[in-house]
Amino acid sequence: MPYVKIEVTREGVTRAQKQQLIAGITNLITDVLDKDPSLTQVVIQEIELDDWGFAGEQVSVLREKGITAQKK
Amino acid sequence: MPYVKIEVTREGVTRAQKQQLIAGITNLITDVLDKDPSLTQVVIQEIELDDWGFAGEQVSVLREKGITAQKK
Amino acid sequence: MPYVKIEVTREGVTRAQKQQLIAGITNLITDVLDKDPSLTQVVIQEIELDDWGFAGEQVSVLREKGITAQKK
Amino acid sequence: MPYVKIEVTREGVTRAQKQQLIAGITNLITDVLDKDPSLTQVVIQEIELDDWGFAGEQVSVLREKGITAQKK
Amino acid sequence: MPYVKIEVTREGVTRAQKQQLIAGITNLITDVLDKDPSLTQVVIQEIELDDWGFAGEQVSVLREKGITAQKK
Amino acid sequence: MPYVKIEVTREGVTRAQKQQLIAGITNLITDVLDKDPSLTQVVIQEIELDDWGFAGEQVSVLREKGITAQKK
Predict the structure, then answer these.
(1) Which pLDDT does position A1 carry in this prediction?
(2) Which of B24, D9, E57, F24 could in theory staple to A28 by disulfide, Cβ–Cβ 3.0 to 4.6 A?
(3) Which residues of this protein are catalytic (chains A, B, C, D, E, F) (predicted)?
């Protein structure tokens, strides 16, 4: 019965990446909580950069300043 | 004051169907909880088939395999 | 695959009322969208009166003033 | 760590208005809860008028009847 | 019609602070979007420290290490 | 910046299991989307069995009938 919602900025997430997220989270929940995978729902919601604020600034503004969210 | 969010895959839900969902849920809450209908908010969010995962698979993949969510 | 979240103030909703909401919404979605009821998830979340704001006021304050959400 | 989600009907909210909402909410949370602003996330989600129901009616229908949400 | 959800760790937020958040956000939305304040709903949800993860760690663990979210 | 919400029935999820979910999802998002883990937030929300409906029934009723969500 688990339901998982992933919100992420819309910055070119591919169909294959979405599939990896869905499969990975479903497997994780099955492993950790012993849940039947056919009961797990995962919803991905991409958010426009103007619509996500971080530290009081739109992410679109942060990106224009060269600030990314990538792993260093 | 109730707030209801409905998430459903984007597969051709019509304006009339949305109106039926909104009216039906508002009436149900009024009947069951005796709430003033003018205080009930209903939000429908359609989710792309690539963005909904079920049993570890994207719904878009399930649909390609001929698996539907229709009542049998 | 539909997922429905109902947020309502915590004011004595009974187990039977919750069951009526769950059955009613599941039936509505089956009727309107022709979805297999075994794919519909409904989650009810009760919110404390101090935690819900309406028109800029906590609902707990509105209730102290005798303002209710009941159908007239 | 606060996370704030704002859902609003899609009726011409500008980029500058979104920035005002993000900055205003981040400042409010910093002032009231003494939280580091760099830990506050704000997400704005615009909802189509057909997808928001109020008092059992789609907002698109209410707007056609001349009913607005503007401050009087 | 705006609906706002605030999620914050459960660390002693008082009733008065909640009222300040509710009033502040309602005023902000009225000012920025010219919305009738009686249509704005704000819901606050406090999350237990074991249930919030940041940078891959439970906030309860971060707090045990002396890491806070306070403004410096 | 990703934000992840996990909703799961309240059936004895331990602190260690929550930590595994938080670490696992943060690592998955870092691996798949190359996101800085210090920007990923994960929130777990446990839902009472009376408050989750599946196939039109409360999960509490399903459990009384001996129907579980465990992996077979």
Answers:
(1) 78
(2) F24
(3) 2 (proton acceptor)
